[in-house]
Amino acid sequence: GAVPAAATGRVRVAFVQYSGTYGGVQALKAPVQAGAAGGQLSGDAAELQKDLDWHEDNFMAKQTYINEGLLMSAQTLALSPQDGRQRALLIISDGKLDDAGP
Q1: pLDDT, tens digit only, all 102 positions of the chain
Q2: CA separation (Å) from 60 to 17, 72, 78, 79?
Q3: Cβ atoms within 10 A of the Cβ of 73, count?
Q4: CA angle 35, 68, 79 (to 5 degrees)
Q5: Nearest to residue 27, comparing CAs of 77, 63, 79?
Q6: CA-based torsion, 90, 95, 100, 102: positive or negative
Q7: HSE of 34 in the Cβ direction (CA atoms, 13 Å)?
Q8: Is 57 helix (H, G, I), strand (E, B) or coil?
Q9: The whole model's pTM is what?
């Protein structure tokens, strides 16, 4: 997927992938790498594109566990600079959440 160039600088976005297996890795952020957002909030379309490409290359198509992804997202928001821009958490799921209770 492509990040629109018009989005550069207007909002800050980070990607957290959640899935995994019970007791295994259930959430991922892109690693720190040159020219990328490294899983942190960014308003730079090129940095976000590099993170998105990493997620596409490292897609976890397994069960749907959200708890670790929510914790990782909350930490990302808590550690981001408070610069007056709005922040939001968007969750996209491919199925029923396996750890959301009955």
Answers
A1: 565 554 445 678 888 888 777 777 778 888 888 888 888 888 888 998 998 898 888 887 777 788 888 888 888 888 887 777 777 767 766 666 777 665
A2: 8, 16, 25, 25
A3: 20
A4: 50
A5: 63
A6: positive
A7: 0
A8: helix
A9: 0.72
